[in-house]
Write a structure and sequence with these properties.
Layout: H1 3-24, H2 34-50, E1 56-60, E2 66-71, H3 77-93, H4 97-103, E3 117-122, E4 125-133, H5 137-150
Antiparallel strand pairs: 1-2, 1-4, 3-4
Helix pairs in contact: 2-5
């Protein structure tokens, strides 16, 4: 076999393998860091505390899994669970939970149709959710929005 034939065969095999690898591909996605999630949760809780409410805050990742749960010293376990479910709902349905509440009347496991949850978005892609629970639905939503506002520059 000539050198030229071997070279052509080698290139063909290499191209064949590389196209197979390209077909497999890599999945690239944005994810919340723990530090960013903590900042969002802390700012959410602080906003409600500044208004005199003792609440809980939750941040979930793109899969709806909890990254951070914070509870005011006077907040209850029910507030923690409601914040978690609101954050999960905001993430899964890609909308504020107050908007979801308007569209549905029933709760499904882990879904909570109550205001107070907001999706976390980067360039139109939902990468998580944040929620507050323990005050009014409007105040909870305002607190979650304040948590997002704290890191708005980092979500661009």
């Amino acid at each position: 076999m000539s050198y030229r034939t071997m070279l052509v065969a080698g290139v063909a095999v290499t191209l064949g393998l590389s196209s197979h690898l390209v077909a497999q591909g890599l999945v690239m996605q944005r994810n919340l860091s723990l530090g960013l999630a903590k900042t969002i949760a802390e700012a959410t809780l602080a906003e409600c505390q500044s208004k005199g409410f003792h609440t809980a805050a939750a941040v979930v990742d793109r899969a709806g899994q909890v990254l951070v749960l914070l509870r005011d010293e006077q907040g209850s376990a029910q507030m923690v669970e409601m914040a978690r479910r609101k954050a999960y709902t905001a993430r899964m349905f890609r909308m504020p939970t107050s908007e979801f509440q308007k569209r549905t009347a029933s709760d499904v496991q882990d879904i909570l149709a109550l205001g107070g949850g907001m999706p976390i978005q980067v360039a139109g892609e939902v990468i998580g959710g944040v929620a507050s629970s323990g005050s009014s639905q409007e105040t909870d939503e305002g607190c979650a929005k304040a948590g997002l506002a704290k890191v708005a520059d980092m979500l661009k």
